[in-house]
Amino acid sequence: MSVDGTALITGASAGIGKALAERFAARGHDLVSVARREERLESLAGELDGEQGIEAHTVAMDLASRHAPYDLYEETQDRGIQVDILVNNVGIGTQGAFVENDLDQELDQTQLNVVTPTQLTHLYGSDMADRGEGGILNVSSTAAWFPGPFMTIYYASKAYMKSFSEGLASELEPEGVSVTVLCPGPVETEFQERAKNEDTPLGSGEMQDVEMAAEAGYDGLQAGKRVVVTGWTFKLLTGVAIRSRIGVLED
């Protein structure tokens, strides 16, 4: 099932979100790019509008609050923008022992990585289901298959996004709405610096190309795939993890 129309992308000013914005624009989609950094958004919108000839809207907004998704939804409604594809990309990570980390920071992470995409999916997904068409692309990680000591909330949030997406895909398929979850391995972005994990195995190992990850997510959505894992190494690792858990259940 291919999905056309305007794509709203959160966390679009850098990393996978920016690469996804470029990918959608190259395929002719109008955009609503959302992030905190207005200058970066406007610069990206100018480039894509000029190079690709698409309509590039921007919304400068911090989504790390319970009410922010409703503000974003109202903003697009007020501007008369119909969101045909929702891309839940925004997210952060924290490094350190959970009980020693700042709790407010961990709650901000939970809001951005779990609650905000859940709220946005409910708001825009309801409209898509009513229209009988649309697409949702959720950005998770291969971390979804594993526990993550010293990045506990991050790993758990990615497991949530994977499970949430797969369940939602079954619910919304009869309504004409496609749901795909993108699960890349570590990608070379600003994430490592913000999470302060450059010296950990996760942050200092081999990195995947951000454009490759974005292309895989876009193509997976258009092909109607429910789960997209990037890179043969991580496909192998996640496959082993699945078989290991099946073995435990059988024992």
What does this structure look like?
The chain is of the alpha/beta class. It has one domain (7-250): Rossmann fold. Helices cover 52% and strands 14% of the residues. The protein contains 9 helices and 7 strands; from the N terminus they run E-H-E-H-E-H-E-H-E-H-E-H-H-H-E-H. It has helices at residues 15-26, 38-52, 68-78, 103-131, 152-172, 191-195, 201-204, 210-223, 232-250; strands at 7-10, 31-35, 56-60, 85-88, 134-139, 177-183, 227-229. The protein has a 7-stranded parallel beta sheet with strand order 3-2-1-4-5-6-7, with helices on both faces. Helix 2 links the parallel strand 2 and strand 3 (56-60). The longest helix is centred in the middle third of the chain and has 29 residues, at 103-131. The N and C termini lie far apart (39 Å). 43% of the residues are buried. Mean pLDDT is 89; it is low at 246-251.
Number of helices: 9
What's the helical proportion of residues? 40-55%
Our Rg estimate from Cα atoms comes to 17 Å
User: How far do the termini sit from each other?
Assistant: 39 Å
Biggest sheet: strand arrangement:
3-2-1-4-5-6-7
Structural class by secondary-structure content: alpha/beta
| Unreliable sequence segments | 246-251
Strand content: 5-15%
Topology pattern, helix = H, strand = E: EHEHEHEHEHEHHHEH
Q: What is the global morphology?
A: globular
For the record, what is the CATH homologous superfamily label?
NAD(P)-binding Rossmann-like Domain
Provide mean pLDDT, rounded.
89
For the record, the CATH architecture stands as 3-Layer(aba) Sandwich
The CATH first-level class comes to Alpha Beta
Total beta strands: 7
Q: Please give the largest β-sheet.
A: 7 strands, parallel
- What do we call the CATH topology? Rossmann fold
Domains (count): 1
